[in-house]
Structures are given as C-alpha cells and as structure tokens.
Amino acid sequence: MVISFVPVVLLSLCAAQADSVAMTFEDKDPTTGLSVTCDRCSPGTYLRTRCSSTKKSECAPCPPGSFTEVWNHIGRCLRCGVCSHNQVVKTPCTADRDCECQCKPGYYYKQEYEMCVRHSECSSGQGVVTKGTPDQDTVCQICPEGTYADIFSAHNCTAHKSCSNAGLQLVLMGSSWHNSVCANCSELKDGADYLREILPAFFVRHNMNVKHLRRIVHKLPSGDGKRRTSDLNSSELHEQLNTWIVSARPEHIRELPSILTKTGVISAGERLDSKLRRIDIQLKSQCRGNEVEMV
Q1: Which letter does DSSP use for residue 123 in this model?
Q2: Which of 54, 124, 137, 244 measures 20 to 30 Å from 105, CA to CA?
Q3: What is the CATH code for 8-79?
Q4: Distance in angstroms (rounded) separating the CA atoms of residues 218 and 213
Q5: pLDDT tens digits for 257-274?
C-alpha cells in the first residue's frame, strides 16, 4: 500500500479540480466588506494575497519541502510528509504532490496494524509460492512430495536427490524438511555419519527454545570440556551445534537422541533415534557383506 500524507482538512477545504465551482471561492473585500468571487490557486501554489473588488488573488509557488495537490485558497503550503518506521520514499515530494512512501525491502504494509511489518519466512518444510512485496506478505506452502526445504527461508522447495541415478543406495528417504540420504556400499560408513547429514536441518525443523538449546550444547560429548552457554543466543547456539556436528565422532552422534531426551525435548529425541535406526536397518539391508561395525 502506498502511503500519502494529504491531510483530510485540505480535502474538505478544496473541491475537485474538475468541478468548475472549485476554481473560485467566495470571500469578503477587506476594504468594503462586500462579498467578492476570488480565483483559487492552482496545485503547487498557495494564496499569498487575497483578492478584492479591484484585484485578483495573488498566488505564489510552494517553497521546497511543501506542496498543495488541489486548487486551493490556503495561506501557506502544506509541509511534505516524512516516511515512518520501516518505510522508504517511493515518489519524492514535489510542489504539487506529497511524497509517497512504501515499505522498505523485506517488509509489507499490514492493514490491520497500519504499519510495515517484516515478511514471513517460510518455515522448514515449506517453500515460497509468492515472494513478499511492499503490499503483500510472502505466501508459503508445504513442500510437495519429492521436494524439501531444510531452512527458514524465502526460497522454493528443492527436489530430493536420486540415489539410484548416482549409483548409490537410499538409506533415508527425504522428507519435506530434509534431503534423501544416500550411501556408497563400497565405501560404507557408520550409520551416524549418514545421520550427520540431516542434523543441522533437524535442529532448525524442531525450533527448540533457547533454554533447551543451551542444555543440549552444554551436554554435547567432546574432548574439550563443557561449553559455556549461558550468554549465547539462539543463533549462536545453532552455530555451535553445527560446528560440533561437522567434527563429532560417530559414537558421539549416537548419543544425541539420549541427550535430547535428558534435556526435556523427548519427542525430538525419539524422532532422531527413529531416523538413526532406519539408517542402520537400511545399511544392513542394502549393503550386505559391506557392513561396518555399529557402535
């Protein structure tokens, strides 16, 4: 929505330009007190000197930073508007038109609040149907079968990779929030190494609160001691998680479901454990004779 700053009082003082009556107005001669018909001033000007029975109205251009949009008889031009919070100028103010504002990039005008608010981000498992504009919010939809979106974003859903086309075995079918996981049976790894691929998306998907994230990061098994987490925000905690995920040993990754359960996110722990079990089962089924020892 384009936001203009023309005051209602100006509209009540001045009729539409198309109406011939709006070109004049009735006034009193300052000397005789008699009624006189005076010319209105055109848009972009104001009435500097009122008319009398002997002289016409004297109009003057609006100075910089002011404007009039309609035929008028006001004594000074209106001050140009100023765009408010989270708005930018769409059309600059001129002598005959106020500035027009619109929401800055990443925001849209929400009529209910009468202000610009940030575009919605499509959550994990959703893709963008329509990108947000200054007038409309982003429109999201759940990723259709065979596609996924693994982050909060403004992007489209991505097709799951095909393991068979790459000569690999499918060990975890893709979902709306993570890609398919494939294994090369001739270079087989521990099942936890395959689970590692979806862990960053897993923590985004489950959108855990800061309290739980701090507990989880604090309990992550590693050789460098316990981490200080009390002063970290959600973004920083996710960053620490992702750093740990990259370098964690398989046996440590296998401890994650238990850690999640102990820190209070029981359902997330159960889901992660189920994913890991499915990977282990598929590895044994698809790669017989090449199994690595599971911890």
Answers
A1: P
A2: 124
A3: 2.10.50.10
A4: 8
A5: 999 999 999 999 999 999
- The closest of 154, 268, 140 to 205, measured between CA atoms, is 268
Closest CA relative to residue 206, chosen from 266, 140, 277, 157: 266
CA distance 193 to 160: 19
Provide Rg for the chain, Cα atoms: 34
Could you give phi then psi for residue 222, rounded to 5 degrees?
-165, 175
Q: Are 153 and 140 in contact (CB under 8 A)?
A: no
Q: How far is CA 40 from CA 15, 33, 77, 86, 235, in A?
A: 10, 19, 13, 37, 61
Q: How far is CA 212 from CA 95, 100, 126, 237, in A?
A: 58, 46, 24, 10
Q: Cβ contacts of residue 166 below 8 Å, gap of 6+?
A: 182
Three-class secondary structure of residue 102 per DSSP: strand
The reported pLDDT for the residue numbered 268 is: 96
Place of tokens 């009039």: 68
Question: Which residue carries 């002598």 as its tokens?
Answer: 95
pLDDT digits (tens, 9 = 90+) for 25-75: 999 998 888 999 999 999 999 999 999 988 999 999 999 999 999 999 999
**Spatial distance between the Cα atoms of 54 and 90, rounded to a whole number of angstroms:** 44
Q: How many CB atoms lie within 10 A of CB 109?
A: 22
List the domain boundaries for the chain: 8-79, 168-286
